[in-house]
Specification:
The protein is α+β, with helices and mostly antiparallel strands. Helix content is about 30%, strand content about 35%.
């Protein structure tokens, strides 16, 4: 089971490295002016990716070119949603 997981991780690393060398990935940068914004959750294409304040450095968001839906949510506030085309 561990060998299968390691092999799967290797495939993902190769896919990401190949995508980066062919420049088909785009980076999405997030900035929050207030604590409420920085503590908000971020979803990309319906999947949770983390808190806004965490999505930098090693945890930056790279997306394949194409249309993506990005949502920022915080309890008690309206959701911010945007469709991006890269």
């Amino acid at each position: 089971m561990t060998a299968l997981f390691a092999q799967f991780c290797l495939y993902i690393a190769v896919a990401v490295a190949s995508a980066q060398s062919s420049k088909v990935l785009g980076e999405v940068k997030f900035e929050g002016a207030t604590k409420v914004e920085r503590d908000s959750g971020v979803w990309v294409d319906g999947g949770y990716v983390g808190y806004l304040k965490e999505l930098k450095g090693d945890k930056k968001v790279l997306l394949l070119l194409g249309e993506h839906q990005i949502a920022v949510r915080q309890s008690g506030y309206d959701d911010f949603m945007q469709k991006n085309r890269g």
